[in-house]
Every structure is written in structure tokens, then in C-alpha cells.
Amino acid sequence: MKCKLCKREFKNRRSLSKHLSQKHSFDKDKILEYYKSIDVEENKDNYVECKICGNYYKSLSYHLKLSHSISSNEYKTKYNSPIISKKSSEKLKNNLSNYYKSLSNDEKSIRGIKSAETRKRNNTNKGGRPKGIPMKDEQKKYLSKLFYGENNPFYNKNHTETSKQKMRGKRNHITGENNPFYKKYYNSIEFKTKFKNTHLELWKNRDENWRKQFREKLSKSIAMSNKQTQTYKNHKHCHWYSNKCDKVGYLRSSWEIYLATIIDELDIIEKYNIEPLCIEYFDYNLEIYRYTRIDFKIKFINDINLLLEVKPNIFINQNIYKLNGIIEYSFENEYEFIVLSDDCFFDYNRVIKILSMIYNKKLSMTDIYKKSNYNNALIISNKID
User: Fold this and answer.
1) Does this model's pTM top 0.90?
2) Is 53:67 a contact under the CB 8 Å cutoff?
3) pLDDT tens string 253-300
4) Given Cys at both, which of 26, 107, 220, 311 links 103, Cβ 3.0 to 4.6 Å?
């Protein structure tokens, strides 16, 4: 190989690259450009000239978008140039076709090479989304809303037996009770006892420090993940769309769904978020740090922020350390905090009255914890008169 600048010859590209960087002070980009210019001179038929900047490329489509902010179609019409890329040479095409013909059907399937019939079928099928192009979050949200509930064409419908058979296809021998993951096996007492005993043995063999660390990690991962797996038995749960809600939330119980409908109706509330905060608190029984998510964070139109929990009275007494952690967080960040429970919660007028009192700053406390006159509503506020 010969250097264009000083006409010195080299055995390989590595030696030439070293020479270019040391003698001619070429950086990596310049060296690449140098090799490209040589390749263009030797194989000019494989390159296309850009009529805007005069550089040569194998394909202009990416270069036009990146360097000139122009599409391929605009370029073709403006410069009357139908060719924007050079196709493979005839020699390469023949080599590839001979190689594919020599392969057996099994080898083709392993390498992911499609048959002529499959390629023809894929070309004729214009529907669907191009593979590899991710969908935007706005588009996902729009489509999800578009086909939600009664708008879904399959709403309140079931597959027929014939369609089920078609979907099963060649898997009839592992469907139903023949399936090793069939639910009857996992719901059996035999499996449950075996599963329980196995994990109890593993748990007993661990020391106390490991258990504490595991509990802490598990609590944090569940709270931080914000997945829709934690739902309550005999409760409804669903994704929630609202103009007042910044993001699409997931409501895990019928109580939360009921409260979200009330919040949407109230004009005094500007916006709210579902489970937006992950709060750390210390559990003195287990002597570890644990984590929890707040059910609702509400912002009123007069800029008062409220953290709201929906819990039965039983859970309030059980989770007293959690409540203390939320109270400390609300003090630090100047939030109001309220827990609605049981009888008061299902009294529509009382819930509205409590929220209105917080909005009008009429809700006054003498202690951090104080039962209000509204039966079982536990009101907690960080603004004490």
C-alpha cells in the first residue's frame, strides 16, 4: 500500500495507519476518510455522488437526513437523480444465490432465510407495523384509550371452539390437563405443602442478618417497581385515564377506583397522581427499613398539596410505622396527609366535605393523630393550629 502524500510504500493497512497518524498527524476520522477516498477511486461504480456536497457514499439516504436534513424523495425531485444507492454487483449476487441454493431447508430455517413463497406473501401484505420501529408513548396511550372497554371489537365476546383449535395448532397434546403448568396441579394441597416446606427449610438455614437484608431489598424492589401485580382479592383493578392525571395510573382496588371518580368530579382539585411517591420508613418490630407507595397525591387549585391513603381500619392499626413514616415525609415536604377508611369512605357527601375543608384550610388539629367527627375517617395534618 502506498501513502498518497509522501509516496512511501507499506505492507499492510496497519503500518500505513500508524504512518499517517505519526508523520502526517491524522486522527481516526481523517484516516477513515483517507481509506474511503482510496476505495472510491478503486471501486467508483459501487458509490453514488452526493450532488449537494460532492462526497461519495454507497447509500445517500442516511447521509441526506443527517447532513442536509432532506428526504430521499425531495432529493430525487430537486436534483433529478433517481439513483441514491448502488446495488450489489452481479458477481456478488451470483455468489449469494449459489450459496443459498446449496443450503438444505433445515439450514435455511436455522439461519432465518425465508423461502420465495414467504417473501412474496410478506411483500403483498401491506398491513401491520414495520418490524424494529418502536412505538411512541403517546401513540401507545392513544391506541390503548381507543380500544378500551366497549370500544374494543372483542368486548364481551369469546373465541369459538373451532378458532381455539386453530390457535392451538400443533399443541393439542399439551393443552388443558396435559399441560405440565396446568393450574389444577398448582392449586392442589400436595403441591402447596411441598412448595411451602421447601422454602421454609431454605429460610430456616439463613441467618438473621441475611433475612433482614432480604426483607429490606424485597420491600424496596416491590415499592420501586410500581408493577400491576399487587391486587386485592374480590376487588376490581384497572388502568385509569383522566385529564387531571399526568400519567396513566393503575388502581389496585375498588376503593381506589371509587375515590378516583370523586376526585375527577371536584372542581377544587387541579390535578392528581396515582402512586407517585416511594417513601422510606423504619419498622421497629423487624428493625429494618421498609418502603411504601402513597395511593394519591392531590394538588388543589390554591396550591395545597395533599397525600391521601385509602385503608380499612384493620390495616391502619397494623401499619402504624408506615403511617409515621408518611407523616414525617409530609412534615418535611409541607404536605397535608389524610387517611380515609370504612364507613366514612363510602359516604359520598362526607368525603367531599373533608376534601373541601382541607381546600378551605378549615381542618384544624390539636394532635398529629386525631379522629374527626366523621365516624371512621382518620385525619392527619401537618398544619396544626
Assistant:
1) no
2) yes
3) 888 888 888 888 899 999 998 888 888 888 888 888 888 888 899 999
4) 107
